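Hey all, quick one. A colleague (J.T.) asked me to put the flavin-adenine dinucleotide job into the tracker so the inputs and the structure tokens live in one place instead of scattered across chat threads. No bug as far as I know, just bookkeeping. Sequence used:
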Amino acid sequence: MSEPKKKVLIVGAGIAGLTLAIILKKTGIDCDIIEKKETFGPNRSGIVLDSRAFKSLQALSLSPEIQKHASEINFACISDHMGKTLARCNLSRISLKNCPNLSIPRGTLLKALSHYLGEREIWMNTTIQDIQNKDTDVEVTFSDGSQGNYVLVVGTDGIQSQIRSMFFSKNIRQYAGYSCWRFLARQVEGIEPNSAFELWGRGKRFGIVPLRHGTIGCYGTFNSQPGLNYDGQEKVEKLKSQFADFGGIVPEILEQIHHPNDILFDDIQNVYLNSWINGRILLIGDAAHALTPNFGQGAGLAIEDAARISQYLNFSSTLLSGLSKFDSREKNRVRKIQYYAHQLGRFAQMSSWIGCAIRNLVIRIIPNYVLLKTAKRAFFKE
Ligand SMILES: Cc1cc2nc3c(=O)[nH]c(=O)nc-3n(C[C@H](O)[C@H](O)[C@H](O)COP(=O)(O)OP(=O)(O)OC[C@H]3O[C@@H](n4cnc5c(N)ncnc54)[C@H](O)[C@@H]3O)c2cc1C
């Protein structure tokens, strides 16, 4: 049976979707990309692209535009909830050669990626109404009623993936045991420009990532039940009260927060699937394997997925065998990172008084090189 015309549909112009669209465009594979949001802004969170993510971007020649808007993060500091330093690690010791860790506002990252594509090539404000996954092609009806035929549909639609819920088994999202606030704030005194900070409390953490132009990306995690939702001013008050017992620079940062629309709130979840393919439907990025954001790996995996799948599409004799090779070869690599990120989260989110005292002591006395070596083994080795 001959393969139909090779036009690919990418659902979701996030980190994985945009990267894949750029690569396909470069390699001459025709594709459409849709995005349900109207714009990439406003910026309400920062994201850290680790050294591996940078290497992938560099290999794809995508790093210059991103570096223009990013800061380098060379140190990671952990302190107790009052700001007393427990460990300060030089990340360049585990970074890949000439590949810095970068921090950048999420919306700015998406705009920078779309720069390589041309924003008009992305169908914004568009989603899927119906998909028929057939033997020879995929018939798609879009939210505006228009239709298209594709040789492959790639779901890059993130952790809440519509494509996953249509074509893959349900209940594969697992709550990690904590939820997360995110917001941007102005730099305050005491924050080193190239250091990411986490303050570890009992069952909660507050993190700070310096960005450009006197801005910082902040996040706060806390152990809870899944499905919590706060509206209006309650959102602001809940965030502030949750970290009211934190010291150091946290109170000064929280004072800046007034508007609920400036705050993001998410349950932290893992997505586990036995297979990322179903016929001519493929999932990559968070849609396939969302993981807890400990040691900031999700964006890097999303970029790597896009780079790796494009190799299988190029060199496979048929598309479907390429997909299945990708599926079977890449899953173990991702599972390992998911596992270590989850374990790190459990350790950091410890809540008993005695457990936290031991945790903080361990972090304080273990030599930095041991912490770094452990992180390297978990996150940077294939
Ligand atoms: C609190 C938190 C902090 C994080 N911090 C970091 C970090 O510092 N570093 C890091 O590497 N990772 C971090 N991550 C993880 C990282 O954000 C994700 O792994 C990464 O964004 C995954 O990229 P993606 O392209 O798969 O999905 P997304 O970036 O989520 O993109 C999905 C896109 O699809 C669109 N979409 C959704 N549904 C549809 C639909 N039906 N039709 C059309 N479009 C659709 C969405 O609007 C979105 O634009 C964090 C995650 C969380 C929750």
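Adding what we noticed when we looked at it: The chain has a mean pLDDT of 92. The radius of gyration is 21 Å.
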